[in-house]
């Protein structure tokens, strides 16, 4: 049976297939440790009859959104991804592109594209499916999740050692009476003049999480926005009120990078950023990222409503379309 994990967003489901400005509830932080709690297997029942999109869904970029859009055309859309791949395959851990506690906000912003349906998300332990053949994997989707169909990109591969491709997925889904919808990859419109310098043989110019990470690494926030279909939002966890400093014109925040819950852009100075804190309206801020710290300044005299009784506070920093002023 699949082993399912919750993330610190609303739990739904999702999967791999071939084929709005709402402010996150930063004050209701759920720790990253809590995101690894296992759910009872009954949680899978909610996906029964739905259409699942298959993928890793790290960046929740425009290609992932297109999978959700196509899934919503045939039924309730779900995203099904796998967790624990890094541990099982021995990959070096790395920061997520989207903070776990911010994923529900991003998925909610997709609703207007998905027939006003918010795609739900479910994560399955990679260790429980790693050694499955393509047929065994599709059989589990049918028997244990009870989905009515799957959506996947044309380059999607699945099963042990990626033995199955899109055509195999279609054939197996037909065998079990499920629909299989294969869609063309969403291509990176800027691939010609923005060198990736990638050795990834799967990269054929399509929008990918790898490209998002590359764009963040060079600090090209306009490029990041194009790939994501939204501005990148960095989530900072504040642990002490002393990290806030009142200035003559507003407030200053300085915190170590270890307080970040997702991947920051290249070190440098960024203007035209927006600060989200609690239920307050966003305010304009300036952000400077150095080797060890993140600093931001705002001219707003009272953007913070700091509850000292609360142990942790989350702050959202959204980057406008710009490049850093300094290397």
Give me some keywords for this one.
single chain; 327 residues; alpha/beta; Rossmann fold; seven-stranded antiparallel β-sheet; six-stranded mixed β-sheet; 7 helices; 13 strands; 19% helix; 22% strand; Rossmann-like_a/b/a_fold; FMN adenylyltransferase activity; nucleotide-binding; FAD synthase
Biggest beta sheet summary: 7 strands, antiparallel
**Total DSSP helices:** 7
Q: What is the level 1 CATH name of the largest domain?
A: Alpha Beta
Question: Percent range for helical residues?
Answer: 10-25%
Low-confidence stretches: 4-45
Helix/strand structural class: alpha/beta
CATH architecture of the largest domain: 3-Layer(aba) Sandwich
Provide the gyration radius in Å.
20 Å
Task: Give the CA-based shape.
Answer: elongated
How many β strands by DSSP? 13
For the record, the count of structural domains works out to 2
For the largest beta sheet, what order do the strands appear in spatially? 7-13-10-11-12-9-8
Q: How far apart are the termini? A: 49 Å
Q: H/E element string?
A: EEHEHHEHEHEHHEEEEEEE
Oligomer: single chain
Which fold name is given in CATH as the topology of the largest domain?
Answer: Rossmann fold
Q: Whole-number average pLDDT?
A: 81
Proportion of β residues? Answer: 15-25%
Instruction: State the fourth-level CATH superfamily of the largest domain.
Output: HUPs
Could you characterize the architecture of this molecule?
InterPro entries: FAD_synthase, Rossmann-like_a/b/a_fold. Residues 126-192 form the FAD synthetase domain. Pathway: Cofactor biosynthesis; FAD biosynthesis; FAD from FMN: step 1/1. This protein is of the alpha/beta class and 327 residues long. The chain has two domains: 4-186, HUPs (Rossmann fold, 3-Layer(aba) Sandwich), CATH 3.40.50.620; 232-318. The chain contains seven helices and 13 strands. It has helices at 62-72, 85-89, 103-109, 134-145, 166-175, 209-218, 221-228, and strands at residues 4-5, 51-54, 77-83, 120-125, 149-153, 179-183, 233-238, 244-246, 251-256, 268-277, 283-289, 293-298, 313-318. Strands 7-13-10-11-12-9-8 form a seven-stranded antiparallel beta sheet, with no helix packed on it. Helix 4 packs across helix 5 and helix 6 (209-218) runs antiparallel to helix 7. The chain is elongated, with a radius of gyration of 20 Å. Residues 4-45 have low confidence and may be disordered.
